[in-house]
Known about the structure:
This protein is mainly α.
Amino acid sequence: MEEPPPPPTSAIPNARTRSYWRWSKQDFFPEPSFQSFTTYRAALASACPRLRDRLLSRSSDNNELNVLPQASENPMRRCLTAWDLTWLAFGSVVGSGIFVITGQEARTDAGPAIVLSYAISGFSALLSALCYTEFAVDVPVAGGSFSFLRIELGDFIAFLAAGNILLEAVVGAAGLGRSWSSYFASMIKNDPDFFRIRVNSFQEGFNMLDPIAVVVLFIANGVAMSSTRNTSILNSLSSIVTTLVIVFIIVVGFVHGKASNLTPFFPMGMKGVFNAAAVVYWSYTGFDMVATMAEETKNPARDIPIGLVGSMSMITVIYCLMALALVSMVNYTQIDVDAAYSVAFVQIGMKWAKYLVSICALKGMTTSLLVGSMGQARYMTQIARSHMIPPFFALVHPKTGTPVNATLVITLLSSIVGLFSSLDVLSNVFSISTLFIFMLMAVALLVRRYYLRQKTSQEDLMRVLGCLFVIIASSAVGTALWNANKLGWIGYTVAAVVWLIGTLAMSFLPKQRTPKVWGVPLVPWLPSLSIATNLFLIGSLEPDAFWRFFLCTAFMLLYYIFVGVHATYDVEHQNSQDFKDVKPTDEPNHAPFVT
């Protein structure tokens, strides 16, 4: 069954008569709570009951599909096929990470077993991709994980996820822009800072201005803003070229490979393999951006499973083969951690091939920027449709069919960060956000299958929550024991058995919902395994990642308490004549809040 298309422009009040470029206060804060200082003060006085309302509130498939898109005033265009989605996922995921991280982790953590690290991370990413696929087929909207979590886990959890996604998107785009500049400068004059401008009066780490990074970000985002279809075609062509270069690297690696370089296969043991798996996982991130393009997919039920699951399976195989080619060509102790593949080609007498690797990495970063800018803007669009951020950013341009306002603000933010911040500073900002959201997506899928409002009994609900608690707790305890290196295999076995019991118990509970078209197989086993693997990878990260996560979450909570909770509360309860007197237990109204 194909999902209904977005509402036509003619169905949206004032969509044809109002100019797209408008800047009034009403376009940014149309909610009753922000009409005057008096109404805002009254809203703050009711912050506690409103926060309780938001914590308990959940959206619905219909609200995300048919109501919220009206805030954009113009529909996005359904122009993407399975072919487009496959190459969009490839372009988003296969950036410079595989060329940089592989050598680093093979040398310091895993040795030749880096192949297994990529297989483990790829399996975990594939499990997450399966969860995303079921949601994107059932609810093909631009919001991706934000919309999916809002439906199953509520507004508050969705807001925390959305805030971390947008932060990672801005920092990630800025980092890609700086990396692009470094690679390009190294090719021109073997100096990554060749095009940067030093300002001695600025603090170290922020004193190397990078205008090339800004130019690259504006060009990539400008292309993404102009047309979804044209961006997809450009990405497909460049990704096919990348694939040919990767095939060349793999073939040459196997031809010049030596079996002796693969021994010892586990020089740092299994702990090194898993530590490397947590790091190389970042080479797989980006596929979630493709889920945000479901609203622009011609046939979501057919195209999304092929595009997402197919591309992630292909990428996992490619990464494992590339890693195997590297450790076959060069002994892991002799791998250059800064330019593994380029130096490896020099060592086997193919000096010219290092330029091919650099061009491939440069192109990979370019497509990652293109697809990333598309996905980031669509995340922001759906978040703005819900009024968690100003609805001005939800508007879709009538000519391009793309969210121009959302793309522009992300471009400006990432350009400012990229202009001033060094790669060292940006690398320290990476966090547990992506793995945390992937874990939440698996939890949300289990909730979707086993809990249905107004149908599931209180007794069954408590059983579902109990099973989820056992699955999450056992996964967390097992991860903690592994990292603390305590109790050995006895502790790991006990944690695994408890996880098995929790998952088995859930498998006997009655399912309340079946997928509309396509569903994750082996539920609850695969989503439960996704929870375990993501928590395990989270536990392998450095403490700095957790501090960054908690600090950023604290700032997000302040914004939510002072702005987000009141805007979304007003939208849900807009039909009340006196919004201040609405009780938090009232049934929310999901009618569109047209600005």
